Each structure stands twice: as C-alpha cells, then as structure tokens.
From TrEMBL:
Belongs to the UDP-glucose/GDP-mannose dehydrogenase family. It holds the Pfam family UDPG_MGDP_dh_N. Keywords: NAD, Oxidoreductase. It comes from Aeribacillus pallidus. PANTHER family: UDP-N-ACETYL-D-MANNOSAMINE DEHYDROGENASE. Residues 306-401 form the UDP-glucose/GDP-mannose dehydrogenase C-terminal domain. This is UDP-N-acetyl-D-mannosamine dehydrogenase. NCBIfam families: NDP-sugDHase. GO terms for biological process: polysaccharide biosynthetic process. The keyword Oxidoreductase applies.
Amino acid sequence: MRLCVMGLGYIGLPTAVMFAKHGVQVHGVDVNEKVVNMLNNKELHIEEPGLPEMLAEVIDAGQFTVSTKPEKADAFIIAVPTPVNPDGSANVDYVRSATEMILPYIEKGNLVILESTVPPKTVENVMIPILEKSGLVIGEELYISHSPERVLPGKLFEELVSNDRIVGGINEKSSELTVQLYKRFVKGTIHKTDATTAEMVKLMENTYRDINIAFANELARIAEKLNFDVWEAIELANYHPRVNIHKPGPGVGGHCIAVDPYFIIEKAPEQSKLITLARSINSNTPKTVVKTIQNIVKEIEEPKIAVLGLAFKGNIDDMRESPSLEIIEELKKAGFKLSIHDPHVKADVEGKVDTVEEAAKDADLLVILTDHSAYKDLDFAAIKKVMKSPIVYDTRNLLDQEKVEQAGLHYLKIGS
Ligand code: SAJ
C-alpha cells in the first residue's frame, strides 16, 4: 500500500507518520522547501508530543519519504490549510492547487481523500471538476471522499487512534475504501456518510464549541457586572447531567474554532444568525481583556505589563489566531511597556524574554493569557520580589489563588 500525503503541517505530518508506522509506504509532500529539508534531517517545524521519536523511526525504517513533489500511490490524502479571505470567506486555493498537483500522478483505481476543513460542497464543486481532468470515471475508476480531521493539537496521536472518524464518500465504494485505509490505526468507530454531510459535521462540531464558549464569555461579563464568580457558577451548573458549559477566557484562537463558523456563515448568511453573533462575542473578547487591564493599572504611572502566554491554548506552540497577539498589539498601541514570555513558542516575538522572572522584573501587572501547565507551579515568592506592583490577572483561572496570595501577590481573575 502506497500513500501520498499532501501538506505536512499540524495534521498532514502526524497522519503521514501514523500510516508509515502501520505498514503503509508513505510519501509526504510540502510546497515549503525549508520544511521538506528539515523533515529529511529529522527536524520538526511543529511541536507535538511523541512526533520527534515517531518521525525518526519511520524515516530510519524507510517507510516515510518527503519531498516537494507528489509520487504515484494507491491513495492520496490532502491535508492543506484553508485560510480565511479578508471578507471572511474560505480560501480553498490550497485545496485546489494540491488537487491539481496530484493530477499527473493519478491512476485507475486510486482513492483521493480530503482531510482539510472546507465549506460544504467543496468536494463536489472544487475537487471533482479538477479530478475529472484525469479522464477517469469519477466514482468508478477514481474514488473520492472527505474525512475531516478532528484531533486536538497536543493530544494528537492519542486522538488519531481513539476518536471516532467521519468518512463521507462521493459513493459507497469511495467510503468503503476510505474506511479500510483508516482502519489500519483508528480504534474508534468509523461512520460512513456522504461528502457534503461530512463537510458540515466537521464545521458543526467546531461551531458548537464556539457558540458554547461565547455563552461562557458572556456569562463572565455578567459575573463581572453582578459580582459573582463565573467559574464556580459554571462548575455548579455542569453538575447537572445535561449541562456542559465551556470555559470563558481571553478569546478563542487556533485555526479551527475561530475560523470554521465563517465557512457555514459564508454559504448561508441569512440562516446563521446565532453563529454570527457568537463569533462576534468571541472575537471582541480580547478587547474586553485589554479594557480590564487598562482599568487595573489606571492609577499606576507608566505601567509595565508582563504577558505570560502567546500560544492560543496551553502546552502547544501554535499562535494562529491567538487572542494573545491581539491583546499584545492593543496594549502596545495604548502605550504600555511590555515583556512577554512563552515556554513553548520558539518564534521571534518583539519583547519576548526567556524566563518568567525576567518578564516579571519591574512589572506592575502579570497577566496569564495561556493555560500552559508550566505556569501553574511558578515560584510566586520570587516573582513578587522582582515585580514593581504585585498584581496578577489570570484570564484562564489557571493559578491556585491561595498559593499566589500566600506569596503576597494580589490575585484577580476574569469573570469574577
Ligand atoms: N477555549 C475556551 N474555552 C473553552 C475551550 C476552549 O476559551 O472552554 C479556547 C481555547 O483556549 C482556544 C480555542 O478556544 O483558544 C480553541 O481551542 P480548543 O481546544 O477548543 O480547540 P482546537 O482549536 O485546538 O481544536 C478544535 C477541536 N474541535 C473540537 O473540540 C470540537 C479539535 O477536535 C479539532 O480537530 C480542531 O478544532 C480542528 O482542527 O478543527
């Protein structure tokens, strides 16, 4: 079995490596030459627990090759990004170009699977017309399906295996061949449907989460106005067997939840009123955080803010759509002096320092923006010593309030 994986990012690379580990001869393709060179040297451009070891293993075993050009295979997986255009619509150019790239390598009996998250009808209206140019009869000589990835960065390998999977073929044979392929490592149930339903299922999952988080963020604003602790209230409400309110925070980041709802809105704007409102609540949340920060330090002359966390969520290095970036930008615009820290992000960011103590030095406020585990066990006594004003603002309800206060710091958190 030979597999060609187009796009070696957060999803394509771990998926390719996983197939290689399960007896498939995998060829990975990325248009970025730098990424290809790094991978060939067994170096990684992304962070994911377990990936470095597995990459080295499959390369050494000769099961995984990487280049900028596709090769002939039995099956092709497309896992390329779908960015958002400035007008909010999905940019499916990479899906289009990856499909065009594999066209010269396609042979009778091949299977093409799209894993990228896309607006409904992309398989039908974008991929099929390109693949028809192969001259093969679609559905009879060339099989096509959509099997959206649904794994959580940071827990990717665990979820690749244990999560249920949706497979939406353009016909039964396409679905069946796709199921057979993923069965090599998927232990969860693989559910068969059609391509358009699969496209929608993926978008609905992330939109459900976006709406739920918007509700939590709204509750946090209500708590701040009415003076109760939203975290305690949510915890208590969630003891009800049919309630599962998500967590408020500094905003919603990442390339999935902050983006996918727009793919539904784009195709049915009139019908997507709740989805649109939730999106606007979440995308305005970073501004609310900035206002709160301004309020906390309003009496302090030329305040310095130490910002902890650049990644969009804990224990990963991904900054895509991270609320931290917008908050930092707004704080800079407002003229605050900033020092920034993130133990996972390696990219160069202006003002980033190597340790929390360095960031806290002479600061008037320490703001927790990302729920990295490393921040839970900070040496708060040492931090207090170096800070100018000992105030902590926790937008994730991450820290142990008692521990922070015992060290002599003043503790404030979002939604209370
Ligand atoms: N967040 C909150 N409150 C919460 C949960 C999350 O503010 O209660 C924030 C996070 O801090 C982060 C953002 O939302 O900024 C998104 O984080 P996430 O952990 O909810 O999701 P992602 O983007 O890492 O991954 C999601 C997952 N989708 C669902 O859980 C329905 C994952 O399974 C998908 O594979 C992924 O999107 C994707 O690629 O679509």
